[in-house]
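REQUEST FORM: STRUCTURE PREDICTION
Request ID: SP-0412
Submitted by: Lab K.M.
Chain count: 1
Length (residues): 248
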Amino acid sequence: MLGAFVRAHRERITPDNPGGRRRTPGLRREELAARAGIGATWCAWIEQGRNVNASPEALSRLADALDLTAPERAYLFELAGRRDPRAPASEPVPDAPASVRALVDAVPHPAYGLDRSWDLCCWNAAAARLFGGWLHGEGRKNLLRYMFLDHEARALVPDWEDRATRLLAEFRADYGRTFDDPRTRALVEQLRRDDALFARAWESQAVIDRQGGRRIFNHADGLLTFDQHTFSPADRPDYKVVLLIPVV
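STATUS: Completed
RESULT:
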């Protein structure tokens, strides 16, 4: 896919000096390589789909040479599995983004929003009833701190240790995109100091996607069962909305 993308965008560029007979539209590979300051062979290998270990800096020069728009550039780096060195950091907002707040407020079932450090940015009344004391009172409410440090979580979640370690593996998938954020790094270092299970699980380097599925809670109202679904809004993909739909 990366090779097809690069070739298609190479062929749409008007050469600087289009004189002479040209068998293909747009730039030749050699011309693109010269523009990007990379080897012509390396450029050919990318288009041929070979396993080329391209550095972010080389991809950045390639994106400039292809005159990519911001969405096209982001897509190039996504296809290559690399972080764009020029990508601006998404700054946290004082309150939940409007898209997150709207979805959380719209559903009657437990729902909450998470920012990139997994701090809760909003929640609805149903979530407050489910999670009890955690969502009452002042102060920043972080899902990892709750799961690993709050004894209420150990009582609420029947399979607590398994869920806690899986939750951390899901968080690490996000951490790979936000580890340069001082607030997120400070959270990880604090939890490594304060909880032995967190420290062991962090060293295991497990990484999984944020997963949905069945969730069971040992609530004061009895054993409650939900199906969990997680979404990220298009306007702020560094945020998440978590919905818990009751299983009846």
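NOTES: The beta strands are 111-114, 120-123, 213-219, 222-231, 240-246.
Reviewed by: T.R.
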